[in-house]
User: Fold this.
Amino acid sequence: MNLEITGRIYDIQGFSVHDGPGIRTSVFLSGCPLSCLWCHNPEAIPFQYVLSYTSIKCIGIEKCGSCMSVCNFGAIKKSKLSNSQLLEDKITHVEIDRTKCTNCLKCTTVCKAKALIPSGQDMKLGEIMNKLMKDKAYFNGSGGGLTVSGGEALSQIEFTVELLKAAKSENIHTCLDTTGFASWEDLKKTLPYVDLYLYDLKHMDSNKHKEFTGVPNEKILSNATKLAKEGAKIQFRFPIIPGINDSVDNLRMTGEFIKEIEYAVELLQILPYHRLGLPKYDRLGKINILKDLDSPSDADMEKHKNFLEAYFPNIQIH
Assistant:
């Protein structure tokens, strides 16, 4: 294995209990070919790093202001005087003109309060393995392990394979959280090193899939079927987005597809849309067109679960 290989990482979460069985460490890689309207990790979509600004952390130009002085493009401007949510005084925040920002990220190197940060970092495989080994006792005690996620981890296929391979060499259970939107040749490379695939199903109608995620779904469905035939274990994850993919027709087609390969399916998780990622859009200077969409009710989720159980019995509301 190549411990010097570098991956582009936007987050590592320890003690994760939502990304596969047991207590896990989830490594989130940057870059995703999809652009789902409901994405709650928009910072993970671009492969290149982008500037994230958390205004609540800003201590004001009165005490800092270094970002304005180092920006060569006039992208950082003085904003209005307002109450600080962290300090007792009123402070003058800055604002980012995204039309001028080049994501050079020079401002992030001088921001004292870390209000301006890049959306990730480059890390060597060896660094990540050091983190994993510190958590191995928790993995062994809970049946957990490593989950490689994204973005789309298959977008950094060489690094992803090396990371999975390194984890398996230490007898660490592995999950790959994927959209399935990749070449079969790349996905097949992960087969020897993945214990469980966490596989997204977003919409069964390819035209609507492209409308809401930016890509069609033929490759995604084909790859899921091929994984099943290769003997892979799959846990499907189906986000319920009201008005987008919760129609009876789409639920039926989802259930029918899973039934075709149920011999490979460990679990179907249905995930209610949530609004927890909305602040990230503000930090990136982006607009979320679903910002006013409400989460499905508990009653709606139970109704969807009951409907899908006619096709596949092992369903969990996540």
Q: What stands out?
A: The first strand starts at residue 6 and ends at 16. The chain has a mean pLDDT of 95.
